[in-house]
Each structure stands twice: as structure tokens, then as C-alpha cells.
Amino acid sequence: MTVIIGDPGEDEPTASATTATTTTTTTTTQMKSPSIMETTPALPANVFLVFFSLQNDLLRSAVFGDSLSYVDIILMDGVRINDAKNCLDLFPQKSMFGAGSKCCTHGDTITITLGKEASILPGQRIEVNSDFLTTQKSEALQNCYDSCPLQPHKELVQFSIAKPSNPVKVDSELSEFLRNAVTRTITVPRDLITKNFTIYCEVCNFAAVCAKSNPLPVTRTARTAQLSVVVSGIPATPVPSVTLKLRAVPRFTHCNTIQHMPFDELDKSDLLTVFSVLEEQRFQVGMEPLIVEVDGFDRSISNDQPIVIDASASHDPNSKSGIVQHNWTCINVKLSNGFGCLISNVWTINWNVSVLRIPAFALNPALYLFVDNITADPLNAYARVYVKVLSSHVPSITLVELSQQRPNIDQYVRVIALVQSKSWPLYFSWHMRSNERKLLHQFSPAAGENLHRIHKISAYSYVDLPGTFPDATGELVEPSTNSDERVVIAFTIPPANTQMFPNWTGLAPGAIYCLCFEANNSAGQSFSEIAFRTNEPPTIGVLNLTPSSDIVALETPVTLSLGDGWTDLPEDLPFSYRFGVRHLGIGNTSIDRWEGVSTQNSLTKYFASAWPEPHVICDVRTGYQGLVQVCDRHGACSRTHTASFFVQHPINASAASNKLLSLAEHDILSGDVFGALSKLNAIRLEHCDSNIGESYANRVVTAILRVFKEYSDVNDFWEQISWALLMSDRLSESVTQQLYEVLEQARLKFGFSAVRSRRKRQLAISTSELKLISEDQASLLMYPFDTLLAANKSIVAMYLQNVIDVMSSFCRQVGTSRIMKAAGAGLTFVQAQGVTPGNANFLNSTFLFAGETRKMVSMTAEFKHAFSNYQCGTEQQRSVCMQICLGTAQITSEAFSRNAYLRSFIFSSTYNMIDFNRSASNFYQVSFLDPISGQFVTLNDGAAFRISIPLKSFRPSHYYATSSPMCNTADRAMFVSQISAASGVSAKRFVNVMCINDGNPIVSATLRAPFRPDQCENSYAVQAIKRAVDGSEGGLPVFTSSYAISVNASVVHRVMNGDGNARRMSLLIDRSFKDVIGNDSAASATRWLQSIAATTRVSIYRFKNPHIFVGIIFNFTITVPFEQELNPISAEEIALIIIEDTQYGELVLEGRQGEPLPVEVATLADVTELIPTSESNTLVLVLAIVVSTFFIGSSTVVAFLVILKIRTDRLLSMRERLVEQARYILQSD
């Protein structure tokens, strides 16, 4: 980097013209693109000469300013400019003044401020268009205007510019110092600044291609104190759709020191002086091209069906209303003149609407082009749609516009096809072609280029969607409701996800795709296409950290700022920025904390201390990394981080905290909420996560509410509230009431339902269409409610409604390839996913639940029958859907224990059969929603689902005896088969089946404990059996003319000595020792112990000293429980379990080749007691499991209660086995 200073002297050479001779001095600030080599005539050292000639009676003189960055042109008396808005139009060669040059008129003087890449060179002549001047006097104008388009001119005059009266001069020592500077930043010593000068920077790349910056005037002042302000946050290319967040940073310079507000260290002499400063920033807002959205670009349709082309989503991003005008034209492509569709006048067609409707039979079979001229003064764009009209009764297809018109590669792309057919069945498939980066240079939205036509003129590669996604192809049967209704077929293209789709690498950035939907019936094939271009994220550049060392906690302001390298396509600008900090912890852990999105390209913040091991701060922090996320205006983002840095303890932590607290108070007063939150968080972390006091929490929350009411930035509001409540949930009741009201307003901005009041059983009020929110937004919405719920605040109604609204929004975005999840502050979880009941393997599928890692939900055959195709959509437009949304929510038991209002809401007098203290699980909500409208769907026609609920604070027994009133002794096998099929419990687990005819016919059976990884525990199995029987109207059919109408379960107790001693046990295997064991007895013994531990679900550490003897006799020891073992069971009971496993053929031991070995049935004679015992106790548990579906839209909350009462006569000592069972199930799922 070379820094050059202009230093013209008094004795510089002059240049002459035919009519005048003047000496001029000025800087030449010529800045070219780095990709173009500069060529500049050589000049004498430190001399910048510009020559003009003057031939007129309109201009008095022209002179350069002393700073060499502007030119003053003085007009003759009475001469004025006709139009001040075209000030620069005086000069046909105005580009010589540089990009962004400005013209200012004041009285009889015209001032031209040179801009970037000014190219005034010695000897050049500058012309003036005299048509823009008049000799009539007018009022003095004081306004400056940017460069305007050139206007036609007739008469030109020429003029020259004189040198400045007091030109800038620079000492040779300063000039030499700057020339030797080769770093990104420089600091000029004060003793070198002896006079005014202008500085600029020249930057060269590795190919010696250079560019120069704008000149920066440096002016000395005799004042010892000065107040200044810097306004930032204005991008180079602002557009209407991007929110500008400006920041004014005042600073007070006193005796070479700089202070930022609040100015609490001023001298007494400064306090007697009134300082004021005015900073003005002028910028020009660009115009974005019109957004053109149409429901499919190419399609085919039968002539007996109407043609509907929907361009209603097209809009003008430059206005709040977004209103555009439409003017459709129809062209018959095959006609020689290419014009006219020959539609009879009997058809009444409105060609100036957003949704064009052509009646059936209005067009004969042919290929037509429909062009929509979309205008919003002064912009226009075109949408072109090719429609092939056929004579056969092929399916009619309408594609709903994409969920994202410029999707990012990390987003889901969802498209919906609406299909009608006269004949069934109908076969459909999705196909896609791609053209990566081949025609991007031809795509120009501003020029009205149509993306959907690009694919017609370029070679595409095909993407195998049917081979990657199961739902990309399928068969439709005739709808059971109305065969003329449209069938909804939704398809979602996910981002790269190797776990769900190993062969899918995702969409490529900056590529063009054409998505085609094809449908076939007996009459033929039809199709509809839609094209889109993926958005490419910004190129990752440099993130600067200043300073990077010697940082003191709470005292040193640290600035994160963007450096070089951040680039993107011009149409994707401007950028928005989000800065953050990564808190590094012990064990390579980290937590990211982000601040709000803005147009600020830098952030200054304070940090709490952090130091690497072994001096870890608060046993948590080992360092930090600065973060930044740079996004273009379409939402594609890139991230990077700084190197790790450390922060030292302040010498006086109390003084540092108080000073930073005063800065936070100033931020609160000035409306800088994020600044205040950041500083308060640094203080909180410095004191090891101690919460801020209630008074400060009230002040911060009140400031957030005030800013939101004034500016209504809903995204910032949720982020700020979540951050504030993270630091403290102690709010006064009055502030909580204000927060409650504003939370309601903020929810309404998302289109969520309003709640009338805070009374119990509030009614929901329908509002505008629900906004589609992302997972991050949903989590932000839920976090404040979880926090206030934990603080025992009365927010139950809005809290529950919020859960439902989030679920409804998710359901309108998900599909079979997309699951959406959100979580609050650890108390609430919401999830939605699309399921297709018509799939062949649907009944064998289980689905995930909100907040759980295991699959818990499955559906019945009746559910599959009811929802393989069902009526869906809005009241205005009913359709037939093949998919349904499974929405689940979980509220932890901790939420009930911490919030009395929630307990009262759920466990009111209506549900006095149980109370919260008797519940043994979290609370789960299962709902099914319409994927089009997001409304809840009522289950009917026997449709049902199954759910396996994890139990808490409950240890079920291993065995249950079940009995059902029915019976015929000849049908025991059929009974087991039917019960197994209805409940999903393996038939092998039912043993000792007996029929008892004692008054009422009863079938009795013993339910074995699980002995395979895919088998659920007996607690789940009993619930499944009860649901299968109790959920069947009229009873569950088990065989001819017999129905199970009730189920009773009781615990089967083993007969034990209760000695608590260890056991030695032997198992006999009828095989050749040489063939099975060979010379590898140790490995076989270890493998068999692992198999026994897995089958019994007992810790492997309870089995010791395995030996295999010729016979084959397998001998091992069962130890007593060890101290760290959770909920252990006795060795005696483990031995009994193994005996039972051998009796029922559940124990599987394998040979060296993996072949199962025949283990003979063991008896008590094979068990040897080793050590004495202890007693067991009595336990009575009552389990209340609540599977709740909340309908806040009604005045009640419907809760489905499954009550299971288990009585035991003694405390069973088998807890370790249950823990191992639960862990095994979770890991296997």
C-alpha cells in the first residue's frame, strides 16, 4: 500500500491558453477498478496541475479550494442556473469529476465536490452548457444534488480554473512517513501534522494493478476541545426492501484524547463551553426490479378445462403496498405472424387482472404463449407462460408458486401441484433439470429477462428426483369425496442431508433449475414446469478484531469490523450484518451469542474476563472468538470468525462494573437496546452468571417495549426480550403486565391468534393469515413464554395459544422430507412433520415426537383408510390431500411444578380424578393438521394413533398378568394373535395363556419382559393393550363373535429368598466343544456374557469369572450390586430371570460363525448361592399419564387421560434393569 500526499508549491509551473493564463494546483484522485491497469501522465513530484480555458460573459472565475477536493465557480452578476436539480448538467464532461461528485449552488457560486475516480488531467478542457444558465435573477439556492443524467445542449463555452490561494502543503518528513506505510491502518504522529493536507491511499494487488481511494482532507484546528459525531449504517447501494439501522456515535476530542459518550471526564473549562455538532448524510435509494411470480411457466391442459394463470404474487418491492398492474396478451405460437389467439367475442375475458382465466373450450388445441406485462411506474417486467391445449381429457395441473423465488442452498424449496382428472387412477412424478452457472451472465432482472425462458436455450443435466425421494412419484386413486375436486400433491426439495438422503448433495449455489410435474391418466400425459435460480451466499472475507490482545474485562472496547473480500452479485446487494461472540469453554465446548441484524459493518462491545486452562474464569470461560454473519438481501448468508482471544481481569472490578453500568444506562436512554444488553451481560458474566437486579431488568424491558412501540421491529423485539429474560426473569407485576400486552401485539404481527384476556379458558380470536415462520423465529417466540412460565407468571392462555400457532405455521411448510422443530427455554418443545398415510409401509412406520430422540407415534389401519385421501384446504377452496401434518408438543413436568397457574389450568376441578403430584410423565400433545390451511383435523371413522410415553419417577414391574372378558378355550392362539396385532406387542411375549369360565369368560396370560432390542417395556406394552381394547367401539374382536371389552393388569411376583447374596450359575449347551469353541474359549465366554447382559438388560459389570468347560458347560458368577449402580436388583433375581429366559427360548448364545446354540432349560439346581441377603419394602404407585390436545379456540381443554394403577406388595429391587432397558431403547431408536 502506498500513501501519496499532494503538496503543490508557490513556484510551480503554469500552463497557458489562448485567452487566459492561470496557475492552478489541485489533487488528481484517479481511482480505477482493480481489474483495469491505470495509465496516468507523469507529473513533477508533489505537483497536480489542471488547465481550463474561459470564453464567455457568464462566468466570472473558477478556483480550486485549498483542500484540493472541490472547485468554486463564480458566476457573473445576475447569472443563475435554470434548474438546480440538474446542477451537474452544466458540464457535459461531468464524469471527469468522479463518481459521486456533487454540485452545490449558493448565491453566485457553484461548488463542485470531486468524487471517487475523479480524472481531471493536465491540459484538458472543460466545457459548460450555457443553455442551463440565465441572466434573470432568482433566489439563492442552498441545496446539493447528486449526479444527474445529461441533458441535450446547444451552445458550449470553455473555462479554466485558477490555483488555490493557500494550497495544501505537506512537509517532506510526513510525506516520507506515509509513503513507507504498508499496513491496512496507519497512525500519524501528532508532531508531523504541522499544516492542513489531503491524504489518499493507493492499493495494489499481486499483478501490480492499483486503485486509489477518495481524498481525505486533514484540517488542523487551534481548538483544544471538539465534539464530533459519526453516522454509520448506510450501505453503498440501499434499496427499499432492506431495513436501514443507523448509528450515531458522538465523540469528544480533548488535548489529543478521545472520549465516547457519556462524557464523564470533562475538564471544568469544557463544562463552561457549549458544544454542538451537525452531521448530515445524503444517500440515494436504488430501485429494485419488480418481483415476477407465476404458478408455472410451461404447462399442458385439456381444452374442456379452464386455463387459470395466477400471477397475483408478483409485486413491487419498492413500495409498501407492492401494487402492480397487469396486462395479458395471448399469442398463437404456430401462426405465421405469431400473434393473436382467435378467441371468440362470446367469451368475456378480463385481460387486466392478476389471475387470468380463460374459459373451457375458448381455445382450440394448439400451443399458446401468454405474456403478462407487469408494470409499476416507472418499472415493468414480463411473465411468459406457454400453454399447450390438448383435445383429450388429460389431467389439469396448476403449480402453486415456490416457497422461495430465490432459494438459498440451506433452505427447503416447497412446491404444490393441484391436479384434476376425469379418469382414475392417475400416476404422477416430479422431475428436475439443472444448468449450473452456464447462463448467469444473461440473467438480468432489471432488464426484464425472464428466468423461465433460459432453460429453453441451454443444455441441462437431469436430477434424479424419483430415485432419491420416495414421494417424488406415486399413484392417485379417485377421491372418496368428490372426483372433480383438485388433489393437492406437495413436494419439498431439502438441503443436503446425508443422514436422511445419502445420495442427495443438495442444490448448487447460483444455478438454474427447471422443476417439472408430470401426470398421466388413461387419456394421456400433461405437465407443468416452473424454473428458479438458487441464490449464492456472499464470498467470505476478512473479519477484523481491534485490539486483538491486552484486552481488559469491562474496560477495553473491542471492535469487530468487516475487512476485504466480502463480495456478491450486484443485484444481491446490499449486505446486512449480524455480529456475535463465541464463548469458549472447557472441554472444547462453546456457546454462540448473536446480536441483532443491521446494516452496521462493525460492532464495538465489552467483554467479561476469560483465560485458558488452568486459570478458567468462573469454571466456564477459556476465551472468545468474534463472529459475523453477512447476508445478501435475499437471505443467503456466509459466516466466519476471528482467532481466539483472551480477556484479563480488571484491576478494580467494582469500578469497572460501575463505569460500564453508566454506559449501559446511556444506551437505554438513547434507545440502543442491544448495546445496553451487551454491556449488562458482560457485567453479569464477570460476576459468574449472577442475574441482574429486578430494577435494572424492569428498566431494560421497559426500554425494549418503548422502542418496539415506536419502531415496530418485531424481529429485534423477540431477540431483545429473550436476551433480557436470559439475564433476569425477576420483573415487577406492572412491567409483566406491559410485557404481556406487547407480546400480544408482537404475536399479531406474525398473524397469530389474539387472546381476549388473561382469564382462564380464554377464547381465541381469528386474525389474518398466519405468517410462515422459521425454526429460529419460533424458538425466539417461545423463549420468553418459557422464561415467564418458570417465573410463575400468569401467561398460560397466551403460552398455550403460542404453542398451537407455532405448530400451525410449521404444518404449512413441512413435508415427508422435512421436520420442523422449535424449543423455548427448556420447558416447551414443538415439532411438525408431514406423513403420507397412503404409503405402502405407513403402518410399519413410527414417528418422532417433539423434544424426544426416539420414535413414539404410530397410526392404525383405520387412520390410513381415513386419511389416504381426504378433504382439505380453506373454506373458499376445498381440495383433496394425500399428506397430513403430525404436530406434537411437549411440556415438561418442571413447567407444572414451577407455575401454579398452569397446574390450575390443567388440573382443575374438572379433572379431580388425578392431580399433578400423581403424574409420572411429561405432558404430550398430539395433533393432526391440514397442510394447506394449518387448521386442526378431527379424527373420525375409527382413526386412531398409538403413543409410547416415557415414564418418570416410576419403576414398573417386569411382569403383568392380563385378563380379558371373553373366551373359548379352542381360540387361545387366535386371541394372542389378535391382541398382538392390535397392540403392536410381539406374540412371543404372551405365555401361559389360559381360559377361565367362571361366570364371565376370561382369558388369562402372562406378559413376558422384553428380550429383544426392538421390544418395548412392559409398562408401554400394557398401555398399548389397554388402548387397543378401550379404544375399540364395542370391544376389540379377538375371534368369531368374541370381543375384548376390558383389561385388568396385575403384577406377577417371583418367589425369592431375599438373601441378597451373589450367585454362581451354569448353563448347558448340547454341542461339540471343539466345533463351537475350539481354541477361543475366552472370546466366546466374553461374547456370551454380553449376550446374557443384553437379553436381561442388566449391567455387564454384574457378570464375572466366565469359564467354558467341555460339555459344553458355561459357568459364570452374578455379583451383588456395586456402589455406583443405579437402582440395582439382586443376584438371586437375575438368576431367576436367566432361568425364565431359557424356559421360553429367549436367551440366544451364538457360536464362532454366528450360529445360534441350543441352550438347555436351566433350573434352580444350576444356581449356587454365594453370599447372605436383605429385605424389600412395600410400594404403591399411582401413574397418571396425560396426552393432551389443547383446543384454545373452544372454552375447554380436552385431555385424554390414560390412568394406570399399579399395586405392589413390596418394593421390587429391579431398578437397574429398568434403567438399562430404557437406555437400550433410546439408543436403538
Automatic annotation (TrEMBL):
Alphabetical UniProt keywords: Membrane, Repeat, Transmembrane, Transmembrane helix
One Gene Ontology term of the molecular function aspect: monoatomic cation channel activity
- InterPro entries in UniProt: PKD/REJ-like
In the record, biological process GO terms are:
calcium ion transport
Per the record, where are the segments of Low complexity compositional bias?
A: 14-29
Cite the PKD/REJ-like domain residue spans from the record: 285-658
Where are the residues of the annotated region Disordered? 1-34
Recorded GO CC terms? plasma membrane
Q: Does the keyword Transmembrane helix apply?
A: yes
- Its predominant location is membrane
State the Pfam families in the record. REJ
Compartment(s) of residence: Membrane
Q: What is this protein called?
A: REJ domain-containing protein
Q: Which organism is this protein's natural source?
A: Toxocara canis (Canine roundworm)
